[in-house]
TrEMBL record:
The keyword Transmembrane applies. InterPro entries: MFS_trans_sf, POT_fam. Its main location: membrane. It is a multi-pass membrane protein. This is Major facilitator superfamily (MFS) profile domain-containing protein. The chain crosses the membrane at residues 67-86, 93-114, 134-155, 176-198, 210-230, 366-384, 442-469, 529-547. It comes from the Eukaryota. It is found in: Membrane. It comes from Gossypium barbadense (Sea Island cotton).
Amino acid sequence: METPTDEHGKLSEPFLTSSPSKGGFRTLPFILAMEAFERVAIVGITTNMIVYLTGEFGMETATAANVIFVWSAATGFTPISGAFIADSYMGKYPMIGIGTIIGFLGMILLWSTAMIPQARPYCDQFNTICEAPTIPQLVLLYFSLGLISIGAGGIRSPFMAFGVDQLDERNNSHSFFNWCYVTLMFSSLIAVTLIVYIQDNMGWKMGLGVPVMLMFLSAVSFFLASSFYIKLKPKASLLTGLAQVIVASFKNRHIELPSHATNEVYYVREGSMLQVPSEKLRFLNKACMIKNPQEDLTSKGNASNPWSLCTIDQVEDLKALIRVMPLCSAGIILSVTVNQGSLMVIQAGTMDRHVTSNFEIPAASFSLFMMISVVVWIAFYDQIALPLASKIKGKPVRLGLKQRMGIGLLCSCASMVASAFVECTRRKIATEEGFSDEPQAVVHMSALWVLPFYVLAGLSEAFNAIALIEFCYSNLPKTMSTIAANVSGLGGFTGNLVASLITSMVDNVTKKGGESWVSSNMNKGHYDYYYCLLAGLSMLNFVYFLVCCKAHGPCHGDNENEAENSGLGDHESIDDC
């Protein structure tokens, strides 16, 4: 969080007393345009990147997939670290500004690998023979991708919060969040259709040049309204407080906890409703235990060293975070399965993608169907399924959070089963048609067969990801709302790293017995076995999720007693959470 200051350094409240010459809805189009241009640029190159790495850099499919997994993981992690830096040190405005500049530089360097022949290995496109990339060429490639990830982290981490900073009590912040969702969805749709089409039909010089211009427009859009923005100064972050609890509990690990807790033993923040810590995870209570009041507290009653003595609120915040982590970690394997979209691009590229005799769907554009399935299901669930179920039951009903998360995990497992079946069929047709040694050949099988993967993957996101965000928000304190959003996104970051590890292990183990399962020649490899492996891991992950559900207990606010206390006793949940 950040605290606004006036010209004299006094505290002020932007939502109540912001100057009419600063902020307001007039700044939001610039902020939304900045994020829209950035999103189109990065999603556009990410979706089709595996084609560029295998076709222009001559990488093996497994190697290219690992590069994309690691890059996606970095792009998922940088917003988390960026939020911490923006809240604690830099502030939102400088963070976004620096992010747009770094992202633009990264795009220019990536574009240079397509523009300068010496920046990439020589590839004979007719014989599909490529020289191995040199170390300088790989350094340039990886450095450009790294800059793009850093830039994305600088932009995405604070942009929503920065937009809310511009609004006061007369403005409706919900409208801004609605426009954010529309902007992100529309930008992704443009990326997987228009940008991918340009890359496939006009070449990579234009295909990477357009994202460069988009990143330039992103920076320009943001800086154009600089004089109108409300720019809040940073203060200590909540993440710092959580780190202090860990350090303080470790420092005080040898102290024995009292058998009877009283507010005289523990450090209580002024105005806090918590007077004693909970009995769960008791070892963390040592972080808020006062050993010597003369040494641990100042004359004003504050902690003399916050890294040795923390408040009860800080301790309970960390406990709440630890409690939700097991269920959040179940989303890692789901992210692994959803992130197989890069391999699906290669698979779809070897199938008949014609819709009409004159038009074929770009292989990377099939991810459009994942987005469509998310939107269609959310609309169906909210507008048709729930009202119909409520009418039948005679009272409002809904799927519980844990049940929705579990359904999402099962959908991700089903997506891998469907992918294995489709790949087994495609490989059999390729062999029968004599294409075993021609990985670029198009088999007589419609690429629409890959739609079950994208539809089921979209449903897994619609069920699990949205429920996971609600779960984190409902089970973490309100003071941790920012962290709640980041915690729910950690599965994507970790999932990419796990996906890279699994792909590398499968490649290294299976190629010892001959052709790798994830061979660059899909007609000789066994991607169907690889997908079956992921389906098995997904089912084991579902069992792990059930164990975590039982250990966690009812979700906050979902059991019947709490419903009755809140006046919602007539609201029926299909499960307890």
